[in-house]
C-alpha cells in the first residue's frame, strides 16, 4: 500500500475554470481527484462519518487537484529528511513534550516580540508541515526525521466544524525509514506524471472528452514544467532560521514557562 494514494476524476466530469478568455482547463485543473494517506492503522485526509453526514455528502476523502497535494508533500521532503541538531532531535523524539512547549508558546501574548520569538522557535517544524489551506479544517501533520527514520505525526483533535471532528485520523504517529519515505515521495510524483501523460494522450486521441477545448501542446509544455518542479524538491536542505537562533528561541520560551528544553 502506497503512503500517498489518489484517483483522478474522469476528464468528462472536470468543470472548466472561468477565465477572462472563457472556459479553461489547465494541466493543474485536469489533476482534479481524490487523495488520502494511509498511515499505520489510520488514514489521513479521510473525512469522519459525522462530518460527512453534517455536510450531506458521500465524499469520504479529500478532493482537490492532486498536483497541489504532490507539491505540498514534496515541499517538505528536504526538511523532513534532514538531520536535526541534537537538542531539537531530542525534543522531536518526545512529541508530548514538544506539543506542550508549542502550546505554551502559542499561549503567550500577541506582541510583535512574542510573535517573532515563536516564529524563530518553530519555523523548523513549519518547514516540515505540508500546507493544505485549500481544505476546510486542513489536517495538522508533520514529517520529522529522528535518527534514521521519518516520523509522521498528526493531531487533528482541534480540527472541527461546528464542534464536529472533521477527520477520522485524530492523533498518532507512523514511522518509516528515511529511504522509504523519500521513495514514497518520488513515487507519488512519478505516478501523477505518468497518469497525466496518459490523460493528455487520451485527450489528443479523442478518447477523453473535456467539457471545453484544450490546447494539447500547451498541456505537454505545462507537463514538463511540473515535472521539473517536482524534481526540484529533492535537494539539500537549508533552514529558514539558523539552528542557533531556533535553539535560543526555544530555550527562552521554555524558561518563561518553567519547562525543560
How would you sum up this structure, described in words?
This protein is of the alpha+beta class and 261 residues long. It has one domain. It contains 9 helices and 11 strands. Strands 1, 4, 5 and 6 form a 4-stranded antiparallel sheet that branches. Strand 4 and strand 5 form a beta hairpin. Helix 6 (112-126) crosses helix 9. It is globular. 28% of the residues are buried. The model has no long low-confidence stretch (mean pLDDT 94).
Largest β sheet strand count, sense and barrel closure: 4 strands, antiparallel
**What is Rg?**
21 Å
Terminal Cα span: 37 Å
Residues in helix, %: 40-55%
What share of the residues does DSSP label as strand, in percent?
Answer: 15-25%
User: What coarse outline follows from CA principal-axis ratios?
Assistant: globular
The SSE string, one letter per element, is EEEEEHEHHHHHEEEEEHHH
Number of strands: 11
Low-confidence segments, given as residue ranges, are none
**Helix count?**
9
Describe this protein with a few key phrases:
alpha+beta; 9 helices; three-stranded antiparallel beta sheet; 261 residues; four-stranded antiparallel beta sheet
Summarize the structure.
With 261 residues, the chain is α+β, with helices and mostly antiparallel strands.
Amino acid at each position: 500500500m502506497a503512503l500517498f494514494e489518489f484517483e483522478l476524476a474522469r476528464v468528462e466530469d472536470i468543470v472548466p475554470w472561468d477565465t477572462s478568455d472563457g472556459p479553461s482547463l489547465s494541466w493543474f485543473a485536469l489533476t482534479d481527484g481524490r487523495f488520502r494517506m494511509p498511515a499505520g492503522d489510520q488514514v489521513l485526509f479521510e473525512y469522519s462519518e459525522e462530518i460527512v453526514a453534517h455536510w450531506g455528502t458521500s465524499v469520504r476523502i479529500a478532493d482537490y487537484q492532486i498536483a497541489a497535494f504532490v507539491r505540498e508533500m514534496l515541499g517538505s521532503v528536504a526538511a523532513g529528511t534532514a538531520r536535526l541538531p541534537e537538542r531539537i532531535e531530542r525534543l522531536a523524539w518526545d512529541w508530548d513534550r514538544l506539543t506542550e512547549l508549542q502550546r505554551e508558546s502559542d499561549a503567550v501574548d500577541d506582541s510583535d516580540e512574542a510573535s517573532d520569538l515563536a516564529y524563530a522557535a518553530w519555523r523548523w517544524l513549519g518547514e516540515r508541515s505540508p500546507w493544505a489551506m485549500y481544505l476546510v479544517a486542513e489536517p495538522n501533520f508533520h514529517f520529522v526525521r529522528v535518527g534514521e527514520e521519518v516520523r509522521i505525526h498528526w493531531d487533528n483533535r482541534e480540527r472541527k466544524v461546528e464542534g464536529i471532528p472533521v477527520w477520522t485520523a485524530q492523533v498518532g504517529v507512523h514511522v518509516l525509514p528515511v529511504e522509504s519515505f523519500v521513495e514514497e515521495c518520488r513515487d507519488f510524483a512519478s505516478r501523477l506524471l505518468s497518469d497525466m501523460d496518459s490523460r493528455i494522450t487520451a485527450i489528443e486521441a479523442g478518447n477523453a472528452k473535456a467539457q471545453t477545448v484544450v490546447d494539447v501542446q500547451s498541456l505537454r509544455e505545462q507537463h514538463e514544467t511540473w515535472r521539473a518542479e517536482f524534481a526540484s524538491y529533492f535537494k539539500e536542505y537549508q533552514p529558514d532560521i539558523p539552528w542557533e537562533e531556533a535553539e535560543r528561541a526555544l530555550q527562552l520560551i521554555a524558561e518563561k514557562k518553567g519547562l525543560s528544553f
